[in-house]
Amino acid sequence: MTARTRRARLVPVLAAVSVLALGACSSTAEIEEQARSEQGTALAVDTGPDQDRIHTTPSRKAIDLLPDGAFPDGVLRVSITQGAVPLGFYADDNETVIGSETDIATLVADALDLELELVVNDWSNWPLATQSGEVDATISNVTVTEERKQLFDFSSYRVDQLGWLVAADSDLRIDGAADIAGRTVAVGSGTNQEQVLLAWDEENRANGLEPVRIDYYEAYNDAVLALQSGRIDTYFGPTPPPPTAPPWHRRTSRSPAPSTAGGRTRPRSPSPPPRATAWPRRSPRPSTPPSRTAPTSRCSNAGACRPRRSTAPRPTRPAWAPEPRTPEE
């Protein structure tokens, strides 16, 4: 069986597992309603490392779809990032990563009757970690784009929503490309929102407007500090739902919802692309996992899951990402 065939067969397995696993759990609305009934109107969130984790039972239908030898050591290795509430972030111990995306990884591993190993990567490193076989999949706020579909298979689980964050006392309102002309904007390198930002900057330049000053931040918390200190005017990234939005910022109205239909990023598309789990298309997992200098941590049904840091070399830039451009260029 070729690597491409093996991975192609794993994708529908993951999609089926997502439906079966999530369907066996209480809905978000039910959980929130239960919390409100127990604690009034306030929704308490447990951010401790030893919180009760969501789990499901093995799915024989999904397990039977796995090709022989898919996981010889019985471990599903998933690349994640931290620093984006509520998707993935460190618990109160600053060591255990918790969040909705770690929960999805847990449910998939449970449904496939596999042990879960979480690998913490910087976001820009997920393509290399996934293609090299260091991990089986990446669940890390990855937008499905035409360029990425050439390298990875995807199993989507939510709609991509982006937004502009500004300080609460800012009078900045962003309704289109002209509103960010001459502004300092923070964005993540190699992200879908970076492509949107570069497209808007190109539009402004063509219209004779001031170029955008782009600051790249690997960590969301660093961008937050820059916003609070006034070093940037706005941060462009995934839009958190209202309950998780911190009180020191507000979202501008009519934030763009980018799409890459036809291979070109188009702000304000009526059909935003999905966020998805990424699986490598061309490179199989090595029969012997690559050597690692960092300790390996596993997730059990009973306790917390403290992930290891990735030891893969960090790329200067993903192969599919556009080159960064300074305002002077």
What is the number of E strands?
A: 13
| End-to-end C-alpha gap | 48 Å
Enumerate the strands of the largest sheet in spatial order, edge to edge or round the barrel.
6-12-5-1-4-13
> Number of folding domains?
2
> What share of the residues does DSSP label as strand, in percent?
15-25%
The profile of the biggest β sheet is: 6 strands, mixed
**Cα-based radius of gyration, to the nearest Å:** 20 Å
CATH topology of the largest domain: D-Maltodextrin-Binding Protein, domain 2
**CATH superfamily membership of the largest domain, which one?**
Periplasmic binding protein-like II
The average pLDDT is: 73
Q: Helix count?
A: 8
Tell me which CATH architecture of the largest domain applies here: 3-Layer(aba) Sandwich
Percent in helix: 25-40%
**Uncertain stretches of 5 or more adjacent residues:** 1-9, 19-28, 241-271, 282-298, 300-305, 313-329
Q: SS-based structural class?
A: alpha/beta
